[in-house]
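WARN  no MSA supplied for this record, continuing single-sequence
INFO  ligand: tryptophanyl-5'AMP
INFO  echoing inputs
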Amino acid sequence: MSEIQNNTVLSGVQPSGDLHIGNYLGAIKNFVNMQKDYNCFFCIVDLHAITVKQDPNKLKRNTLEVAATYIASGIDPNESVIFNQSSVPAHAELAWIFNCVTRMGWLSRMTQFKDKAGKDKENASSGLFIYPNLMAADILVYKATHVPVGNDQKQHLELTRDIAQKFNREFNCENFFPIPEPIIDENISRIMSLKDANQKMSKSDLSEYSRISLLDDSDAIRKKIKKAKTADTVMPEKIEEILKLSEVHNLLNIYSGFSGIDKQILIEQYKGKNFSNFKSDLSDILVEQMKPITSEIKKLMQDKGYLLKILLDGQNKANKVAQKTINDVYDLVGLLRNET
Ligand code: TYM
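INFO  complex generated
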C-alpha cells in the first residue's frame, strides 16, 4: 500500500457565488502561503454546491470564477493542482464507501447541517446530510495531511479524522489514511457579518452590506465599511474591552488580516479615537489589497479557454493520485475488480 506523504494539502471552496473577504482571509490566503512548502490540491467543490438548488448555467460560471479567484489570489497552477471536484470521479466513489463507514449519529451532530437545513429538515436534500462524508473523501482521496479552512469547517475536519481512524481500524490497514490536521488561523478564521457580528460573513446573506465581495469595486468597499456597524464609544484601550464590542473586534481582525499588523499595535494607534479614521484607513488597506485581485479575476473571466485548460490539466493530475487511492480502497474493502 502507498506510504503516507506527510506534506500534502487539500482544500476546497464551493462555487456557490459571490466569494467574499471571509473566504479569502479564512481560506484562500492560506492556500497561497502553503503552496511553496506543500504538495497542494485546490478543489472547486461543485458536487458540494448542488446539495442545495443551483442554477446550472450560473454553477458553471461560478466554477470558473472560483478558478479565476484562486489564480488571481496567487495560487500558481504550475505549482498547485487546481481542478473541479466532479471531474475526478474518485471523490464520489470514496464518499460512497464513507457513507457506509460513518455512523448516522456522527452526521446528526453536524451543526452546519442543522444551520443549513433550518427548520425544514424534512425538505433538505439527503446530499446535504451526507455532505461531510464527501468532504472527508475530498481530503483523504489525496491522503492529505493538512487542510487550511475557516473555523466553520472545524467540526467537519474532526469527522474526517474519525472516518480515517475507523476505516484504518475496520479494514486492518493502520496508517492507510493519514489523520489530517486542520490549519486554522484563529484571528481570521471566522470573519463575521458587517451588519451583525453574531452571524458569520456568508455568500448567502440576503444583504450585500453584510459582506465585502471579492468583485466589489473601491466605491462599494468604502461604502460598506462606512456603513459597517461599530459602537457608540471610542476605540477602547484594552483588548478585553474590544472583545465585548464584537463588531469592532471583527473590523480589527479584518484590518489585521489584510495589513499583517498585529492587533495590539492597531489598538495603540486608534485607542481613544472615534471610528471614522479607523474605518477610512481600513478602507484604504482593503482597496489597496483587493484591487489587483479583483481586476485579475475580471480579466481571467474574459479568457474562458485559459481557465478550462488549467482545470483540465488539474483534473489529469488529480485523477492520477485519486485513482490509485480508490483502487487500493476497493481492494481493502473487498470489491472485486477485473484488471484489464
Ligand atoms: P465554503 O465554500 O463555504 O467556504 C470556503 C472556505 O472559506 C471559509 N470561510 C470563512 N472563513 C472565515 N470567515 C468566514 N466568514 C468564512 N466563510 C467561509 C470556509 O471555512 C472554507 O474554508 N465544506 C467546505 C468546502 C469543502 C472543503 C472540502 C474544504 C468541501 N470539501 C475539503 C476543505 C477540504 C465549504 O462549504 O466551504
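The radius of gyration is 21 Å.
INFO  checksum written, moving to next record
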